[in-house]
């Protein structure tokens, strides 16, 4: 179908193009949505990973600094609370995130930066801290001093046998940097885990580890400390979906429409034809025309051919009328002239002097502004001492084109001859042709076909032949296919014959070979063996 159908109907197959465009748009939609969602997810994961490492670094840094500070305070553990308390309070106040520093000696907390003198068993304050470890941490809902406020305890033991060291209580709400990260729009959740407890960004209360939500997490340890962090990743949100679907929908719609127009354009016979000229998809075939009396080749008719790369051969009966109706015939005919001119050297070798070079002319070309220039250009390239150019114009064209009479005169003045093509098929009064001085009548093959047949049109052939004689024109019978037709036409003194009986239209190489082998076609022998 495709182009051929398009030529036949002069309209492209809209339905099929629409369906194809729909499929293209749908495929684009699916691919685009998948790729976009994948990219969003991928980018988010990468970003998340960056936040994780940054937070981890921050935590390590913070705890290292804290530890260093605690080491500096360590020498205070031997001294009385009265002496050191102001120093201790000062240090606590200027260490970010620290609620209190507590000095511990021999298992008893005896001095707090917040409350001064005290005497409490360490295990009473933080039951979960392992005091024997050089460093330990615990997470607790509150302390006896500040209940109901999640606190992180950091225990730093002084090396030695006695349970002596420093206990720092960190205010989790006062660790803004850690929590700031978790408020990042791409980090929907965050938890700090110490032992079996966790503080999270989605609950102000402490949570047992077992109760933490499990999905979309990655756990990051803080090296050197009994602490880890859990990050809750964001999966694709409803908003992601909404925007992606909407965007893809709009884009695929555009793609579909674009594809549709591309198809229409590609199927456009007009474009295909012009492209065909540019890409040399056209070529010429030559069909020999025989002199009836001498049985020698009198000349040939040039017939244009179109070998489309995907549609195959497109018959001239389809594209010539189309080219005429769309105003492309002049461009096409000029192209034909160029192709014939290119073959002239070979044609001149194959054919004797005086040979007729028949070229079909579309009637509308006669009124084209470039008509004279086109013809003059062609004739400049054709050796007129060797060939006589014969333009074949349909009877219909002669009657319908306004300036036909003047143009025929002009053509004659240029030394060319004129043949009435498809004679007998037009609706015009034949007598009308008397006004013109024309050289040949090509009897349409529809009449030649009736020879030997008992049809209603059969007698018309005789009438056509006798009329052409009365008009004093030479006759050419086209579409001669059988020996019976040959002898019939001989008897009626038809001057020239052309048809498959002698030869089909041939490419230039084959045509030259044919001429060399059949300089005198022995059809007499074929007819009267
Ligand atoms: P047409 O000018 O009447 O051309 C003769 C047509 O009859 C050609 O068809 C030719 O191949 C075919 N033919 C020749 N001998 C026989 C035969 O023995 N039996 C049968 N059945 N057919 C035979 P084609 O080449 O398909 O051309 C069709 C029409 O297209 C032509 O009719 C002509 O009107 C137009 N055409 C072809 N080439 C050109 C061209 O270069 N320029 C213009 N303007 N029209 C062309
Ligand atoms: Ca013709
Ligand atoms: Ca014809």
From TrEMBL:
Enzyme Commission number(s) from the entry: 3.1.4.52
Gene Ontology MF, one: cyclic-guanylate-specific phosphodiesterase activity
Pfam families in the record: CSS-motif (PF12792), EAL (PF00563)
Primary localization class, coarse: membrane
Catalytic activity: 3',3'-c-di-GMP + H2O = 5'-phosphoguanylyl(3'->5')guanosine + H(+)
UniProt entry tagged with the keyword RNA-binding: no
SUPFAM superfamilies: EAL domain-like (SSF141868)
Membrane topology, as annotated: Multi-pass membrane protein
UniProt keywords, alphabetically: c-di-GMP, Cell membrane, Hydrolase, Membrane, Transmembrane, Transmembrane helix
Enzyme class (EC, first level): hydrolase
Protein name per the record: cyclic-guanylate-specific phosphodiesterase
